[in-house]
């Protein structure tokens, strides 16, 4: 089973657990949920797209060749890199565990900050009619 298939199954299980909670209905869960994904072929299979549709998520496409708008590139990776700098890992499993611990250890505000930066970056890109925006070395600044 591929990594993406595993993730898809995991997301489906989570979706079903939430759906089984009768305090919420599907419209309350999906109302306003935007799914931002890049255009990688791994994200475009029929099964993945059907799951997005079945969950009633609104898909926000990622412009090709635009790392400026990829939250992983401008937010998650640099922050995680700073967290892991200077540490040594003996195995791949130790690295995976360290990354998972880092991501799970972040509070809601951490992720909100990254999404708010995406809104700012999208507006800046639109203001420049989609022109490429050069990245500076300081976090969150362009």
From TrEMBL:
<dbReference type="InterPro" id="IPR052709">
    <property type="entry name" value="Transposase-MT_Hybrid"/>
</dbReference>
<dbReference type="GO" id="GO:0003676">
    <property type="term" value="F:nucleic acid binding"/>
</dbReference>
<dbReference type="InterPro" id="IPR036397">
    <property type="entry name" value="RNaseH_sf"/>
</dbReference>
<protein>
    <submittedName>
        <fullName>Histone-lysine N-methyltransferase SETMAR-like</fullName>
    </submittedName>
</protein>
């Amino acid at each position: 089973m591929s990594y993406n298939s595993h993730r898809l199954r995991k997301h489906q299980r989570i979706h079903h657990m939430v759906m089984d909670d009768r305090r919420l209905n599907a419209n309350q869960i999906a109302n306003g949920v935007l799914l931002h994904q890049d255009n990688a072929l791994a994200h475009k299979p029929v099964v993945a797209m059907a799951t997005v549709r079945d969950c009633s998520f609104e898909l926000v496409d990622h412009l090709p060749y635009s790392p400026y708008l990829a939250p992983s590139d401008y937010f998650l990776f640099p922050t995680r890199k700073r967290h892991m700098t200077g540490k040594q890992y003996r195995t791949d499993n130790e690295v995976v565990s360290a990354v998972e611990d880092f991501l799970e250890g972040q509070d809601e505000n951490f992720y909100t900050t990254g999404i708010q930066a995406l809104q700012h970056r999208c507006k800046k890109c639109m203001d420049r009619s989609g022109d490429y925006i050069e990245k500076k070395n300081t976090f969150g600044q362009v």
